[in-house]
Specification:
Strand content: 35-45%
Number of strands: 24
Radius of gyration: 34 Å
CATH topology of the largest domain: Immunoglobulin-like
Distance between the termini: 118 Å
Shape: flat
């Protein structure tokens, strides 16, 4: 009678340990579902002023990722600033280079950004301090006292390059806002890059307090907003311009569209006082008014597929072939008392 009892105990034990063929072995297995790991994240930019107040202006933030741009699926995101916040969602995990764009009329300046990273499944918050820039404003008139509208006014930085421009309104007023801390010279000009309102194109540029050239012109020192520092606001920085005479560049090949851009380069201030002009169908450039001084003239040649560039030819004097060597260029001295046309012998097209 003892053997049957032992047999029952063994079967029960085997079933408890899941031996094949037992009742426990055929029970369905229960597996916990896998948790999906997000491959994208969010980036939120919060813009505040140096005083800690929320930035109330407008603007757009672009996200550029060098890694993703070089991939088979280029990526660039864009978000509008609203109530001081720009939000990006579902951004691929990567490192981004943010770029901030503000309206040209903004009183704020664009801050420098560090690279930011999007973390999978997470939202990254980026705090950005955006400062109010300095402003310079005034009125532009002609030497006879008439207001001059549609004329360019430029803030030129310490390096001699134009930092910001504005056009005068119907009352001759301008406002250069959102300027970073620095030293500026203010240029009053009837046009930019050889084009502009025909009514303004007979005037020579001038600088604040009637200086004719960048060198020796008055310097305005301004400061942008910072903790404990109020942004500079300079008003009454007005100027006047007087009528001048012109330079026209004519091509020896009228109607040839291979050579159509002329550069008039000032030896006094290459960036601030140099202008582009375009040849029309008759082969002559837009009339350019120049202040007294010396200028070199160049023309962009036809596209060179070998170098992948447009060669630059320099005017070397009346009746002579141009040269790609700027040291061979002849400087034309403009006295401001006569109008002149020079003929640029366009290079032969091979």
């Amino acid at each position: 009678m003892k053997k049957p009892l032992i047999t029952v105990v063994l079967i029960t034990a085997l079933a408890a340990f899941g031996v094949p063929g037992t009742a426990a072995a055929v029970a369905p297995a229960r597996v916990a579902p896998a948790i999906a790991v997000p491959v994208t994240g969010g980036i939120v930019f919060h813009f505040t002023t140096p005083s800690g107040a929320t930035y109330s202006g407008s603007g757009v933030v672009n996200l550029y990722s060098p890694t993703l741009e070089d991939s088979a699926t280029p990526y660039q995101g864009q978000a509008t600033i609203s109530h001081g916040t720009a939000t990006f969602t579902d951004e691929p995990e990567s490192t981004y280079v943010p770029q901030l764009f503000l309206p040209s009329t903004s009183t704020y300046i664009m801050p420098n950004f560090d690279n930011v990273s999007s973390v999978a499944g997470d939202t990254v918050v980026v705090a950005v301090t955006i400062a109010r820039g300095a402003s310079i404003s005034g009125t532009l008139k002609t030497s006879t006292g008439s207001v001059l509208k549609d004329a360019q006014v430029a803030a030129i930085g310490e390096s001699g390059t134009i930092v910001k421009t504005d056009a005068t309104n119907s009352r001759g007023q301008y406002s250069l806002a959102g300027l970073p801390t620095g030293d500026y010279r203010i240029q009053f000009n009837s046009r930019s890059s050889g084009t502009g309102n025909a009514a303004t194109m007979k005037y020579i540029w001038s600088y604040y307090k009637s200086k004719p050239h960048l060198a020796g012109s008055n310097v305005l020192v301004v400061h942008q907003q910072a903790p404990g520092v109020t942004a500079s606001v300079k008003t009454g920085v007005s100027g006047s311009v007087k009528a001048g005479h012109s330079l026209v560049v004519a091509s020896s090949l009228p109607g040839d569209t291979s050579y159509n851009e002329v550069q008039i380069v000032s030896e006094a201030a290459p960036d601030a006082e140099s202008f582009s002009s375009w040849l029309n169908a008759a082969g002559t450039s837009t009339r350019v008014i120049l202040a007294p001084g010396s200028y070199k003239v160049s023309m962009a040649g036809a596209y060179d597929p070998v170098t992948g560039d447009f060669p630059i030819y320099w005017y070397t004097g009346p009746g002579t072939a141009p040269s790609t060597d700027e040291t061979q260029a002849v400087a034309y001295t403009f006295t401001g008392t006569t109008s002149k046309t020079i003929t640029f012998i366009a290079p032969s097209i091979s």
